[in-house]
Design goal:
Keywords: Cell outer membrane, Membrane, Receptor, Signal, TonB box, Transmembrane, Transmembrane beta strand, Transport. The chain has 980 residues and is mostly beta strands. The chain is built from twelve helices and 48 strands.
Length: 980
Amino acid sequence: MNTSRHKNLIHLAALAACASLALPAQAQTAEAAPPAGDSSGGSNVLSTVVVTGSRISARGFTQPTPTTRMVAADLEKSAEPNLFNAIADLPALQGSTGRTTSTNSTSSGIQGLSSLSLRGLGPIRTLTLIDGQRVIGANVTGVTDVSQFPQLLVKQVDVVTGGASASYGSDAVGGVVNFITDKRFTGFKGHVAGGQTNYGDDKNGQLQAAWGTGFAGGRGHLTASIEYAREKGVPSPRFGGAGANGRTWFKNPAFQVRPIGQTNDGKPQYTFIENAQQFQYSKYGLITNGPLQGTAFGPGGTPYQFQYGSNGVPTGTGAVTGCVTPFCVGGDLTGTVGGGTTLGMNMSRQVAYVRGSFELNDDHEVYASFNYGKVDSLFTPNPGAAKNANLTIQCSNPYLPASIAAACAANNITSFQYGVANAIFPKDIEVNPVRTQLRAVVGANGKFDAFGKGWTYDAYAAHGQNTIDINVENMTLNARYNAAIDAVRGPNNTIICRNAAAAASGCKPLNIIGDNPIAPDAWAYIAPADGPRQYSRQRQSVAAFNINGEPFSLWAGPVAMAFGAEARREQYYVIGDPYGNGVFPETPNTPQYPADPLLNTAIGNNWYAGNYHNAKGAYHVKEAFIEFNLPLFKSTSLGEANLNLAGRQTDYSTSGNVSAWKVGATWKTAMDGLRVRAVTSQDVRAPNLSELFAAPLVVNNTVNYQGTTLTVQQRTIGNVNLRPEIARNTTLGLVLAQPKWAPGFSASIDYFDIKVDDVISSLNAQQEVDLCVAGNQEICAAMDLVSATKYVTLQAFNLASMRNKGFDLEGVYRFNLGGVGLPGSLTLRGLATHTKSFKTNSGVVGTIPSEAAGVNLGNTPKWKGQFSQSWETDTASFTVSQRWISDGVYSNEYIECQASCPVSTVTRPTILNNQMKGAFYWDIGGSYKVNKNLSVYFKVDNLTDVDPVAAPQTGTGYGINPFLYDVLGRQYRVGARMSF
């Protein structure tokens, strides 16, 4: 048996025995009694039964779609500064983005987003709701930011781990996460907390308060909450690979990758290394080619011989003996930049929420709510701005030491290639995304009689707006940097920029030969104060109604029915700064953006990174749905069974009509506590604003077409002809819910199979040309390779497909300890998700389907588990919990071999060691009730301070995978909760 697999099975078996594979069975059904933590009070209008995986709210209805519920008590035990973290830890949640992810990115647009992803399908295929209602997206992909939600009033979170498009519409391919607020909260409650890591950083704190009261004799109700939270993050340790604040685990991991043509020697192509040294630059400058290759520069420009790792010797051609481009092992690592990425963003949250309702009479209630949420993040993607052997320094440069100028003459050269990490920059790049949400809702709910039956309804209209400002500081303009480093002697022996046009427009010479302070005017020239900027505004308007009732009865009981309709409009615009976008103001000679002949005013892209472009777009949606619950039979010998049917018809203004449907059934067998469930559905994800209306951009590129190299215009635009992705979701499960022979015990197992076709994906120019040659007419229409003006249009297309299969295990066992003479009760809980297979077919010519299950460089491990053991009394509690990621591989496409390896191919490369370890984390927490109004608590996450597993890259990289692993280390938190 595979050793890694054996260890995983042992882990799972041990934890299953310990925790009884657990999470509440209350998550699977909607019963008459309200869930724990419900303070619904005395509303006379309607006591809605929330069944997130369905629109049917009839009491006693058992839905077939698996749903995991976390109630307020569970959320409090997690003691996280952001509810996002508590939800993202659930095993079915894979690939969620938070403040420790994407911190090495300037332009991705998802930095600072707390967005949930089910099954590794991405946040764009997970629908996140508040009280069953859509929420305005927090970036152009339409995904929501949980950090903007009112968190103190959340009384439960339902996670539907199955397709729910028939009930809720687009994006519910992986499932739904529904945050349900306490609409009838009465009294006052407050929460204060603080914490930090054991490295003394990421200090955090939060203040929350909520208040609720009735008025007008109980007919009206008002709730409000306000909160502020700050997580100060982990500062960048800058250069050299030293961990931040004493962390010792970062060791510059990377892959050395030999050229495929050299792999006929029986040795593997890929080799994992630590202490990887980029030999194409050094901290303060390195000559990377020619007879002077290997000369580095130190304080004041003093030249010295660079110490290559792997005992490497420069060849004069840019290569280094004993090394594999671009890495040696060891040597001078002072210029390392990969460890300088921020581990956790500095993030603050400000949220305010108010909701008011009024009962017009015993049957009808109107309500209105308003939410304000602002999330401000700050991080450093990398120190300096590394130039990988792509600079040319003239031997006449006056900043060169005399010895180097003489060496140039002796070797009969006039210039050389140069690389530098630019550690002399006075400040590191800082990216500051700020997202501000305003959302207002008005609605009504109640009950009425029609056709001799009682019905309930809920109708609402909402308008939301998210303003996203991304401000980048200390970023350099490439053309100005290149002009500034190309210095010559001018009049009176002064040093000036060689380019006369650049000098006339303000160029200031820059000395990058060694460790030399940058003059303020030179820094201001290459890194103007108005760095990359992106301003975008998204708007969402929604109107919807839902009606529930039991129109007639069958032999086994009443038929429940829900139907409704929704209309929605989504729109956005985004504005990039002139340097990045390329469209300058009508008066370009303004002080803010002076005329500069070096800059590209047509297409922009002038920044080292962070080139944002203008775009806008809008679409609208009209849809209607209907859902039935049909009781099939009810008898003592057979038990009870029901059939759940749902259908939704949707009309998108961009792509036309699409259907979603669901067929499911549950069977409560005659066996004590045993229930069987099954559901299959067709689900959809419509193309988002970014995919439809991406910012246009034109650059030159080359492609190979029928054996000829052509220069073409590469035109990047959105694709308004995109079709919705279509998914087929199937789930089969068994539930054992509190049998008489084991009161307090519940467990479930569910097999899932998700297949997504017409997946929207983007290709490069050569891939599009190859697909056209292979006969794809849709892609052929996006290019012209025969006319005088040849072009290839880069767009997103419905090309790829995905299939994700596996199973979920859940359970809980609660029992009183009085029988063994101890106070209180013990609750054993656990969840585990096994991803058996997750294949993606890109649709690109010459590729093979990739298998993501168990790839620990990604976000879908073979096993992800969460377990807890909680002891509780009336006054105190103590919880021990575990989080587990199974061992995996770097890639399932790699062939592992140490000797006699086959020749590598593009699709099946060879690797020396393809094993990537998983992780096992211990957390502890406890609380104590000081009196009826005050309780205090503590929490320690990652108790044993487990280091993140090295995540090697093929180039300069992050070196860690924050989607799976804890990158912050042991974290301490304490807090107090008050209620009156």
